[in-house]
Structures are given as structure tokens and as C-alpha cells.
Amino acid sequence: QVHLQESGPGLLKPSETLSLTCTVSSGSINNYYWHWIRQSPGKGLEWIGYVDYSGNTNYNPSLKSRVAISVDTSKNQFSLKLNSVTAADTAVYYCARGALSVVPPSYYYYYLDVWGKGTTLTVSS
Amino acid sequence: DIQMTQSPTSLSASVGDRVTITCRASQYINTFLNWYQQTPGKAPKLLIYAAATLQTGVPSRFSGSGSGTDFALTISNLQPEDFATYYCQQSFTTPRTFGHGTKVDMK
Prior knowledge:
The complex is a heterodimer. Chain A is mostly beta strands. Chain A contains no helices and eleven strands. Chain B has no helices and eleven strands. The N and C termini of chain B lie far apart (35 Å).
């Protein structure tokens, strides 16, 4: 059973950089997409972006100028960096595995089938 | 971005009830629609993908339907562990977007 665990600081000051790591255990990081999602009371669930095992990324345009997601296959980990944080970035941050089902003739169904427990970030001076 | 609108925002039901939650996409998304369940303090859990395919291990009382822009999640014979918040999410394009959730609580 694949398990995901987020780690990172719980508290940052405005303008600092958030660095989170998600460790993938009991499974390979290969052949999947690895996502970050956040949840705040005001904005609900917000998709941040993903990285695949080759390092290809796709980001939410609303965050693209501040975000970077990377993968370290040797450690079975992937990471999120979000710079210049503000109070609006206060949220629970989840990492999740993106899986794919292919249905002929050419439908590619993507979904988030394994999630970490989430880590809370508070941005406050 | 594709906007996902769920209704109702909340509903009250009893054990044994049949419950239906709807989700509407702001544009055509074929059947690229997923449903998740979230209980307080926990991460979302995948229930259904491709609009109607039950994830492994999810009870058969959950079912999904719809295509295009209109979708539904139905829970037949509601169980105590089903009181939760449910989210739809489109996987038609990026950025992936979620509905704002439907909270199912006990009547």
C-alpha cells in the first residue's frame, strides 16, 4: 500500500519561501504524476501543480510565477517550493499521486488515488 | 479555468436514505470527472473516476453518472460513515479544478 507523507515548516513569515517534501513509501515514484493540492477555508481545494517521474511539470497559472515542483527519484521524494508567501497561502497542503487509466480508443483518465495526510501552513508575522 | 459548481452546498439525511449530489462544469468535459469524499481532519479519498468508474475498494452503494457538463454522485442506502463532504474535480484539462463541496450531515 503506497503511503505519502508531507514534511515541512508549519509557520512562515510573509515573504519567506515555503519548502515541502513528500516522501513516497511502499511504492515506486516511477510511472505516475505527483501533485500538490492545498485547501483553505476561503478557497476550498486548489490544485497547485504536478511533476512526473521524468521531472516534467505543470503548474496552476494562478501560482506559476511563485511555484516550483521537483522530483528526486533516488530518494522517492518530490518537493514543492512556493516563494514570497503571504497570509493568503495559509492552508493545509496535500501531496497526492496522480494515476492514469487508458480507455480505448484514446481516452486518458487522470485521478488522484493516494493522498498524504496533509500539513498545515500558517503565514503570519 | 473550468469552473465546477456543486449543489446543494449541504444537505441533511438519515441512515438508509438515497442521496444525490450534482456537479456542473462551466464547459464541456466529456466524462473527465472525479469524485472525492473528505471527512473532518482527513485528506480527500477517491471514490469515482471517469464519471462512473468506482475506485477499487469503494462500496457499491456509491455511483456516478453524467457526461458533457452535468454529473451526479448518488449514495444509496446512506451509512453512518458516509456523513462527509464530497467534491467533484475535472481532469479534462489543467489547471485541475474542484467544486466547492457538498456537506452531507445527519438529519
